[in-house]
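User: Fold this; tokens only.

Assistant: Input:
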Amino acid sequence: MSILITICSILLAILIFSIVIFVHELGHFVAAKASGVQVNEFAMFMGPAIFKKQKGETLYSIRCIPIGGYCAMEGEDEDTDNPRSFQKAAWWKRLIILVAGSFMNLVIGFLMLLIFFSFQKTVALPVIDDVEPACTVVREGGLQEGDELWKIDGYRVYTSTDALLLLSFESPTHDIEVKRNGEKLVFDDYAMEKHQFYNAQTGENELRYGFGFAEASNDFGTLLGYTADNSVSVVQSVFLSLKMLFTGQAGLQDMAGPVRITQMMAETAAASGTVGNAILNMLYFGGFIAINLCVMNMLPIPALDGGRCVGLLLTTGIEKITRKKLDPKYEGYVHGIGMILLLALMAVILFKDVFYIFK
């Protein structure tokens, strides 16, 4: 039975990945069609085609390797005489087409999180509550019960999970900003000490700060706001992770590709207890991945949509100044090199993930 659950979880994880990618490419496709740009092929997945159908000027296909997909537009990386090519479209239309994929990822990610949180009767707010008598964090002249945690070490606190994450970084003190009675108070170098507290549910002592977070009834207004806060929180976590990579606080061993993420989704689903909880947890993973993909894809890196947006704005500016049309093949070379490097990084992460699983 456990093997069957694991297989079903993996298939569901692949399905969620497929939906996220499909929606991304659908964003490009719809924006291109609405802008009058010719789409030569709209493909789901990569590799040899297992299904193809020509409808008008566009070939619709499903390919055999369940990773990726693409929306192939006429003249995307090279000049052509076709008046409906990507390069012939107005610069602002091309910008909308490039951004549309990530925008759709943001939308589907928000909807997945919205469905996940809609099944919760209450939601935890980043407001200090349930202070235990031996708690030293909440004290006179410092943090008080009812304070809303606003910033920790310069990072906005959108959710209670944000607060726990930012406080988890190894440091005896933190710069904390709170909202109290409509005013903001700042506590620099505030000592956050954990102590042993008894847990009545487990019957054991555990190390924690000694306070909890206030809960709010999950009505429709709260649900929308809470989902929006969690969505922005995911965006912030992406930039925080990138900062850790560039500063050496995290390395390649901390990065996970589709194989490892699929395994984590399957493990989470298998440990969810019920089929309903498993599906909800997979939806949360899907929302998290979709918003991550939205942010990562808009980074100014060649071959990514963000890099293409930067290239488009630069070439448009240069053409306005010089009044000369630049050959798009040179920009295509830059994105081609970027794609090769990205594929190489993906291959390294893939082998690392496979090695991790077998290990």
